[in-house]
Amino acid sequence: MDRLSLTFSALADPTRRAILARLSSGPASVNELAAPFSMSLPAVSKHLKVLERAQLIARGKEAQWRPCEIKAAPLKEATDWMEQYRQFWEERFDRLEEYLKELQAQEKPAPVKATPKRKKNGSNK
Amino acid sequence: MTQQALFNFIVEKDANSITVERSFNAPLDPVWAAWTEAEVLCKWWAPRPYECVIKSLDFREGGRWLYYMQGPQGDRHWCYFDYATIRPKSYFSGSDAFCDEHGVANTIKPKVTWEAHFNASDGRTVVRVLLHFASAQDLEQIVAMGFKEGFTMGLDQLDELLTTSK
């Protein structure tokens, strides 16, 4: 799997996103991370492995206390392209909307009484 | 005044498809024309500050639309769109790709398959575009086109952008 796919599949889970949200305020141990969830430590560890594989988190080397910390780079990559692409479409659509508004303003003649006949291409607003 | 415009941008969790949805306070006819007629398309297709210049547009099944988007520095990005299925005033599909000025697809750049749906009610038209990418890498290359630079977002916003699978 390429890196971006790895990032997205890791993020496509509410528990893992919650773990990341927690880690965004600082490193934490597995026990600390597990506390808010009603799941076993092994289940939490499994989620951490997925996050680690996607390089979204890194774990300390100390045998006893292996704190997890968030790694921003893949996250930023993922959000960057999404945001840019989203903006691209939003700006494109804004322009279409402007055009449609202009068109309707042009088509709207000086207030004459509406005729019952419907114009094929006209605005019926 | 008018109804609040709808704008949705939903990234599917496999990361290979995106749905973009937008409502317009206009009837179906002008919206459909805006998407399918060259003289209207060129007015809005390129997001600012880009401008769209259409070389040819053959809106029929199997037809091709060839155009470029020009940036403020004069950089040109040629693209084509090959129409597959057309259901007048309701739907069209096809695929687009970056290419050269002769319409020869650039294989390094992504190819995107599209489906555009048009639904009108009460003088309002909703356009829903489903974009399907061959791979997540193709999506990355969209960014490489360099439309906008830099943007940091909190996890909350990221959460909104991603569809959750509960």
Description of the molecule:
The complex is a heterodimer of chains A (125) and B (166). Chain A has helices spanning 3-11, 14-23, 30-34, 41-53, 72-107; strands at 57-59, 68-70. Chain A is mainly alpha-helical. Chain A has a two-stranded antiparallel sheet with strand order 1-2. Chain A is elongated. Chain B has helices at residues 28-36, 38-44, 136-144, 155-161; strands at 7-11, 17-24, 51-57, 64-70, 76-87, 91-98, 111-121, 124-133. Chain B has a single domain (7-159), classed as START domain (Alpha-D-Glucose-1,6-Bisphosphate, Chain A, domain 4, 2-Layer Sandwich). In chain B, strand 3 (51-57) and strand 4 (64-70) form a beta hairpin. Chain B is α+β, with helices and mostly antiparallel strands and 166 residues long. Chain B has an 8-stranded antiparallel beta sheet. The radius of gyration of chain B is 17 Å and the shape is globular. In chain B, helix 1 (28-36) crosses helix 2 (38-44). At the A-B interface, helix 1, helix 2 and helix 5 of A face strand 1, strand 2, helix 1, helix 2 and helix 3 of B.
Layout of secondary structure:
The complex is a heterodimer of chains A (125) and B (166).
Chain A (H helix, E strand, L loop, with lengths): L2 H9 L2 H10 L6 H5 L6 H13 L3 E3 L8 E3 L1 H36 L18
Antiparallel strand pairs in A: 1-2
Chain B lengths: L6 E5 L5 E8 L3 H9 L1 H7 L6 E7 L6 E7 L5 E12 L3 E8 L12 E11 L2 E10 L2 H9 L10 H7 L5
Antiparallel strand pairs in B: 1-2, 2-8, 3-4, 4-5, 5-6, 6-7, 7-8
Helix pairs in contact in B: 1-2
